[in-house]
């Protein structure tokens, strides 16, 4: 799990408390990465993974998520909350699941469902990544703008 701070390099008090609690649980299989990762280290996080993106739906209602693009591009299914661009992409490509709430029981059930069908979900996620890379590429936008001028 990558826990490095965003661009400002700071965490608010609630995030600091959550990270301290997370580090204190002592689960040996939890690999917490508190620093910015190299491109290869970052890509490795998606191998065989289910990507939890339980973001605030309002904040991502019409905002593209780079993490979603990266997860799909690396064949990682995504679990998201409803009402976000992320959820719409999960549903569009059937490449993960959208959970109605973020309770531990609900998220665990979704993760278990993803694990059970991982092969097909990973293939759909990779296909989604290819489509979304094309749709969101700067070259595609450039071509559209210059051919319609």
Short description:
The chain is mainly α and 149 residues long. Helix content is 51%, strand content 6%.
Secondary structure elements and pairings:
Elements: H1 13-24, H2 39-44, E1 51-53, H3 66-73, E2 78-80, H4 85-93, E3 96-98, H5 104-116, H6 118-135, H7 138-147
Parallel strand pairs: 1-2, 2-3
How many domains? The number is: 2
What fraction, in percent, of the residue positions are helical? Answer: 40-55%
Give the strand line-up of the largest sheet.
Answer: 1-2-3
Strand content: 5-15%
Q: How many strands, which pairing sense, and closed or not: the largest β-sheet? A: 3 strands, parallel
Tally of alpha and pi helices? 7
Shape: globular
Instruction: State mean pLDDT (0 to 100 scale).
Output: 89
- List unreliable stretches of 5+ residues: none
State Rg. Answer: 17 Å
Q: H/E series, N to C?
A: HHEHEHEHHH
Number of strands: 3
Task: Give me the secondary-structure category.
Answer: mainly alpha
Q: Could you tell me how far the N terminus lies from the C terminus, measured between alpha carbons in angstroms?
A: 45 Å
Protein name: Glycosyltransferase
Organism: Massilia cavernae
Describe it for me?
The chain starts with 12 loop residues before the first helix and ends with a helix. It folds into two domains: 1-36, no CATH class; 38-147, no CATH class. Helix 4 links the parallel strand 2 and strand 3 (96-98). It is mainly alpha-helical and 149 residues long. The protein has a three-stranded parallel beta sheet, with helices on both faces. The protein contains seven helices and three strands. It comes from Massilia cavernae. This is Glycosyltransferase.
């Amino acid at each position: 799990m990558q826990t490095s701070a965003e661009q400002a390099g700071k965490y608010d008090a609630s995030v600091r408390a959550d990270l301290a609690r997370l580090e204190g649980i002592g689960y040996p299989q939890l690999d917490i990465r508190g620093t910015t990762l190299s491109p290869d280290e970052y890509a490795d996080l998606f191998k065989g993974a289910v990507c939890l993106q339980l973001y605030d739906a309002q904040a991502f209602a019409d905002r593209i998520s780079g993490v979603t693009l990266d997860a799909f591009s690396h064949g990682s299914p995504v679990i998201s909350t409803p009402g976000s661009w992320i959820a719409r992409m999960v549903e569009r490509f059937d490449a993960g699941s959208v959970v109605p709430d973020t309770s531990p029981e609900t998220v665990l059930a979704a993760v278990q469902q993803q694990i059970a069908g991982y092969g097909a979900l990973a293939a759909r996620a990779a296909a989604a990544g290819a489509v979304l890379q094309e749709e969101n590429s700067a070259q595609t936008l450039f071509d559209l703008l210059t051919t319609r001028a």
